[in-house]
Amino acid sequence: RTFPGTLLDKMFDPTKREWYTRAMEYPGHVTLSAPYLDVGGAGYIVTISHTIFEGKPAALHSPLDKVVAVMGMDITLGYFHKLLAINIKNCETKGVRCFLMDDRGYLIAHPGLIDPTGKGPAEQRHITHMEPLVANDILNHRGFVQKKLCNRYNDRTVQRYFAFNTSFTGTLTNLVHGEQCARYQITHIPGTNVFLGLVNHTCDTATAFCPCSMYD
């Protein structure tokens, strides 16, 4: 069911959507999806979703309980960025960029996603695309990120992807010593599949060699 009501294609299957599948991966957690185009015509949106468990006395649940449904709430990308700026004042500091990324490194919020002069869609933008200096340093943190691969049989390629540790506690910061153009801090938001990052750029360059290609 949807509220407010809207016309959807008969072939639309919510159980195949990312906001549904990611919630099922993290039962009992709040999951956020990377921006995508709304099938109802609202433009780019972010979906916040959560599993609903089978009812029990005293409403006590665990992630092992039976999931009977997934509920989701859509927020337009522009309004989502506004909420981020209101609640995290450092995001408005000159030279500082805030971002949210999911457990696979795909950006949920980043100034580049709403930049009117930016090129390309807001979908499937990875931290390796938008923050290569940060991504290059993150790979040096053992236990925080793993680089995995899977075979794509439709085009016979090997796709690499990142898996970030959602059990991570504390704050991640620059590991490589020396002069840094981008000083960053990243922390996991408890109870979610999301990481919050702040980047302080002290030089104009935004490019770097990153051994983090996604395809072979």
From TrEMBL:
Which InterPro entries does the entry link to?
Ca_channel_alpha-2/delta (IPR051173), Sensor-like_sf (IPR029151)
Read off the Gene3D superfamilies from this record.
PAS domain (3.30.450.20)
Q: What are the recorded GO MF terms, alphabetically? A: voltage-gated calcium channel activity
Report one GO cellular component: voltage-gated calcium channel complex
What is the protein's given name? Voltage-dependent calcium channel alpha-2/delta subunit conserved region domain-containing protein
**Gene that specifies this protein:** ORF45019
